[in-house]
Specification:
Elements (H helix, E strand, L loop, with lengths): L1 E3 L12 E3 L49 E3 L23 E4 L4 E5 L5 E4 L2 H5 L3 E9 L7 E8 L6 E8 L2 E7 L14 E2 L7 E8 L11 E5 L2 E6 L16 E4 L4 E9 L5 H9 L2 E2 L4 E2 L2
Antiparallel strand pairs: 1-2, 3-16, 4-5, 5-16, 6-15, 7-12, 7-16, 8-9, 8-15, 9-10, 10-11, 12-13, 13-14, 17-18
Length: 287
């Protein structure tokens, strides 16, 4: 079920309604977030609670642990991770063009992608790293570009990242909390538009049981830009309450090398394995 949230000028004041859809279609009002209890029952890239280029030549991936899910976007939306299946679905089609590390998926007006079946694997992981390259125009209006979040029906869970022009919204839910942190889905300032940037969602839980959650950290170009601390209950973010559908990408953007790991990394290993950059001892040299 898709639920829509209205947005205030700066803060997030949510009023829930419901919209049912039986076909794949792009979203309606761009200020309405996906908050349903099962995103697989919804179609179109999910809008969000608003708050709050150049291509490089292909490179060889450095040796390292294999992601459980991996969409290289090399003229295909097939999964190259250790889990079988999980090809992306692109209801309005998708194009391909020069990316940051080879080819990238190019989403035109009304285009997006999603993958079903992610609840079972993600809910079994105490630690999760999601990394991807994205280039967006800076004009996105209240739409999520990464969404596997349920904040309407208990048990809650998951994460949603979205853009409203130069503002990034971050929604984090745990098993018992529809919103973690003050300000609901408030986030931070977006990086420069029309430029490739690498995004990482890093979740370092202690386990999958009650009280074994952790904070969610957001890295851009391997630099920590935002931390969303868990609440006093410290319950897991990735749990059986998350939707079964993960949305990736937003119309009028390009996305490349999407990786999901069931572990977290040191800053140096995150640079080499997830970003595919070079660690110089102090910082990450981007590819």
């Amino acid at each position: 079920m898709r639920e829509q949230l209205g947005i205030s000028v700066i803060g997030l004041l949510c009023a829930c309604g419901a919209v049912e859809s039986g076909v794949d279609a792009p979203p309606g009002a761009v200020d309405a977030p996906l908050v349903g209890d099962d995103a697989a029952d919804n179609d179109g890239p999910p809008p969000i609670d608003a708050p709050t280029v150049d291509a490089a030549p292909p490179i060889d991936a450095p040796a390292g642990p294999m992601p459980v899910l991996h969409w290289p976007m090399e003229n295909s939306v097939n999964n190259a991770g250790s889990l079988s299946g999980f090809s992306l679905t692109t209801p309005a089609s998708v194009g391909y063009g020069a990316g940051k590390v080879g080819q990238a998926a190019v989403f035109g007006p009304g285009q997006y992608s999603y993958v079903d079946g992610v609840r079972a694997p993600l809910a079994s992981y105490a630690k999760v790293t999601i990394g991807f390259w994205m280039r967006e125009p800076g004009t996105v209006q209240g739409t999520a570009f990464l969404d596997v979040n349920n904040r309407s029906t208990s048990p809650y869970g998951g994460v949603q990242l979205g853009l409203t022009q130069s503002n990034v919204s971050l929604c984090v839910s745990t098993t018992t909390a529809s919103y973690v942190g003050t300000g609901g889905c408030n986030g931070f300032t977006a990086p420069s538009a029309n430029t490739w940037h690498h995004w990482i969602v890093r979740y370092d839980g202690a386990g999958t049981g009650t009280g074994q959650g952790g904070a969610v950290q957001i890295y851009i170009d391997n630099v920590l830009v935002h931390t969303r601390a868990n609440d006093a209950n410290n319950n897991p973010v990735f749990n059986p309450g998350i939707p079964d559908r993960l949305y990736i990408g937003v119309p009028n953007s390009s996305v490349d090398d999407v990786r999901v790991y069931n572990q977290v990394f040191s800053l140096a290993d995150q640079c080499t394995h997830v970003v595919r950059g070079t660690w110089n001892g102090n910082s990450c040299v981007l590819p």
